[in-house]
Amino acid sequence: MTTFPENFLWGTATAAYQVEGAWNEDGRGPSIWDTFSHTPGLVTNGDTGDVACDHYHRLEEDLDILSGLGVGAYRFSISWPRVRPGGRPNQPGLDFYSRLVDGLLTRGIAPVATLYHWDLPQELEDAGGWPNRDTAHHFAEYADLMGRTLGDRVRAWITLNEPWCSAYLGYASGVHAPARTEPAAALAAVHHLNLGHGLAVQALRAVVDPAAQMSVTLNLHHVRGVSERDADAVRRVDALANRAFLGPMLEGAYPRDLIADTAAVTDWSFVRDGDEATACQPLDVLGVNYYNPTLVRQWDGASERATADGHQDGAASPWIACDDVEFMPQPGPYTEMGWNIDETGLTELLLRLHRDYPSMPTMITENGAAFADAVDPDGRIRDEQRVDYLHRHLSAVAEAISAGADVRGYFVWSLMDNFEWAHGYAKRFGIVRVDPDTRERTWKDSAHWYRDVVATGKLPA
Ligand code: FCB
């Protein structure tokens, strides 16, 4: 039987735009995701986050669900345009997060606050968005505000969620907000996200409890080549996807090969002296989101190029300067996202991080699966595929721990079915079901299963 370490942190995760709703209430300003979802044709079924799970109004109910699950931590994100629309503090928005944090603490649940889970205030996008350096400084001002508001109670901070998606899906392929397809701007966004991260850590440290833990969450790609001949394709994708963030944030420098690979797109002159050192702030733990591995091959230039990277084909590719790389379909089984289920990638990724950054602990800040769950006539939701997915991936985490990796915790994505970005409500990741019409919450079998895992610290045989 697989047993986890005594102090292993168990949690679930959500993000503001995906669950809150109340998009124009109590002084909240618009974000790039409001603009994106309100633009016809960009989101499946025309879905929006206007109401989402109505979490803003059902806070107490959702806190009680977390309590019932027995989790030790809850990872949520703060909506920047709710708390600082137009660059000014919005008290009702700040009060909402204070209530959330207090509600968690009363129930013995540690709040893990993510500052940026993709909902940039629209006025900052209008001023240029992440490709504009000023955005990094605005981000630090927002971090300061949140540090002052919650810093006496929140002991775990995550600056950015998956800056890979913000930069490349937002500004290169355009399948996410703000739907721009400008490769050079996407690389400038990469840099300003790295810089913003460093500035935000500095701003938080200056005002929060000194014992607070600082972190960032990356969706690191576990990249494999079809054969040994594909080593350069693996290197190139690893540079763009992983080392573009790990380099500045953990080592204080961009990888030389990344700069060389992308030379035809940009000269990287947006990186100013001292920026890489600013991006490289001491962190307490590295957040890792994992769903599936990536398989690449050197393209022969003749056959139709495979683009099965799992991120939806947009008007352009998110893979800047990787025109000679193919993203190969991988063997099943698959989740409802079309992502292959392969937990070995998670073990390998955690061991690679342990090898490359031996003194940096990791935390799985997201892992989970979308399936088309059905409510049976008896009212039960028998989502055994999700249970199987979670079981496999938790076993993979345990394997990495027994091989020496210092993994501190695990957060299921997601607490509840929610707005899955450009897929709208069509893809459901929750361990708790949210009825699309009534928003009634119902525990799926996976929620009951997870509660038992959390309670025992063990995986059932
Ligand atoms: C991650 C996002 C999260 C959710 C999952 C399925 O990329 O961080 O918000 O959409 O994927």
What does this entry look like structurally?
The chain is of the alpha/beta class. The chain contains 15 helices and 13 strands. It has helices at 16-19, 32-37, 59-69, 80-83, 91-106, 122-126, 134-150, 163-171, 183-207, 231-251, 256-261, 275-279, 344-356, 384-402, 445-456; strands at residues 9-13, 73-77, 110-116, 156-161, 213-218, 223-225, 285-289, 294-298, 325-327, 362-367, 407-413, 432-434, 441-443. Strands 1-2-3-4-5-7-10-11 form an 8-stranded parallel β-barrel, surrounded by 6 helices. It has a 3-stranded mixed sheet with strand order 6-8-9, with helices on one face. A two-stranded antiparallel ribbon has the order 12-13. The longest helix has 25 residues, at 183-207. The mean pLDDT is 98. The structure holds beta-D-fucopyranose. Residues 15, 18, 161-162, 165, 219, 289, 366, 413, 420-421, 429 line the site of beta-D-fucopyranose.
Summarize the model shown.
The chain has 461 residues and is of the alpha/beta class.
Features:
461 residues; alpha/beta; eight-stranded parallel β-barrel; 38% helix; globular; binds beta-D-fucopyranose
